[in-house]
Design brief:
single chain, alpha+beta, 6-stranded mixed beta sheet, 5-stranded mixed beta sheet, 16 strands, 36% helix, globular
Length: 346
């Protein structure tokens, strides 16, 4: 059991919210030891680029066989570095090449700043139901964590200790009682909560899940498959696609224009921090400082995505707190206001 994975949870409260996911553009693959050098590398590059495109796009259903075939034709030229140890090949690709390919195919690019996800898991077996977490590990939870890593999803398990059980019992989790689940999750300060229940019906595995996010309606998913592994794999595919839809950038023929006003920017250091942060947001294609009046700074932006995606991305960081916009503001339909807090984790 990979208990070390669950221990990461103990550090979460000091991490802030969003997590910088590393190695999005790298993959470690296994190839048959009988392959010759050239065949081995071709297989490795193709398998590795499939993994990378899955993680970076977050949209597995849109990675058609034609798209993957085109990627295979070019994967060798995108390799930044690789190493071979026996039948294990480590491959890293150039970010710019992968991103450009995805944009050219009309697919999204989901950057490394991703929402932290707390997973509550309950399983029914032989007529009884049991919650699993850091203090109660299980094979199903471990497999879910392995699958999430493949998708670049930063997942964490709750402790499921007496404090958790006081707020959220097995009946409430099984029934997907949103209020109880969210109340228990406050302790862990993640961006997103995923509740998962596993059962059997007529010899097949049934995995139901509920994705909970601030200011978003709950999203329910249900998958039935021959095995738990297959059903959970399908749930992760759908969760990845949902979150990619919410955060990933897309190349637009006519980028969306947005004006952002930020109050409380009192000195050069704050200004530099703010500008660097806004430039780092994936959906921001172009950033231009338009005015500084007192402590208020205004930026003009072009977005590779929607205004909603920009807001969702900003909500992953505590550097800015949203403020209401007055209908009297210039072009109020395209203006967003924030208060600079200086508490960001970037």
């Amino acid at each position: 059991m990979k208990r070390i994975v669950f221990v990461w949870l103990l550090l979460l409260s000091s991490m802030g919210h969003a997590v910088q996911v590393s190695n999005l553009y790298s993959s470690v693959v296994q190839v048959p030891a009988s392959s010759d050098d050239k065949q081995l590398l071709n297989q490795a590059f193709n398998q590795a680029i499939d993994d990378v495109l899955l993680r970076v796009s977050g949209q597995p259903d849109k990675l058609s066989s034609a798209v993957l075939a085109k990627a295979h034709e070019n994967s060798a030229s995108w390799v930044m570095q690789h190493s071979v140890v026996g039948s294990t090949v480590n491959v890293s690709f150039y970010k710019e090449s992968v991103d450009r390919f995805l944009f050219d195919q009309g697919l999204p690019v989901w950057g490394s700043n991703r929402p932290s996800i707390l997973v509550w898991l309950i399983e029914e077996s032989s007529g009884s139901r049991k919650m699993f977490g850091a203090n109660q590990p299980s094979t199903a939870l471990s497999e879910l964590f392995d699958g999430a890593k493949l998708h670049g999803l930063p997942v964490y398990a709750p402790l499921v200790d007496s404090v958790d059980r006081e707020v959220l019992d097995s009946s409430a989790l099984w029934g997907f009682f949103e209020e109880d689940i969210l109340k228990a999750s406050e302790r862990y300060q993640t961006d997103v909560v995923l509740a998962v229940r596993i059962s059997q019906y007529r010899g097949e595995a049934v995995v139901d899940s509920m994705l909970l996010s601030p200011n978003q309606s709950a999203r329910l998913l249900s998958v039935t498959s021959a095995t738990k592994q297959e059903a959970m794999r399908e749930v992760l595919l759908k969760v990845s696609a949902m979150l990619s839809d919410r955060y990933a950038s897309t190349r637009l023929a006519n980028p969306n224009e947005l004006y952002v006003k930020v109050n409380g920017v009192s000195d050069y250091r704050a200004m530099s921090s703010l500008k660097n942060y806004l430039s780092s947001i994936d959906v921001v294609k172009q950033l231009q400082l338009s005015s500084i009046v007192g402590g208020q700074v205004e930026f003009n932006m072009l977005l590779n995505g929607t205004e909603e995606k920009f807001k969702n991305s900003v909500a992953l960081n505590s550097l800015l707190a949203a403020l209401p916009v007055s209908p009297l503001d210039y072009d109020a339909s395209h203006v967003i206001k924030y208060q600079y807090t200086g508490k960001g984790n970037n």
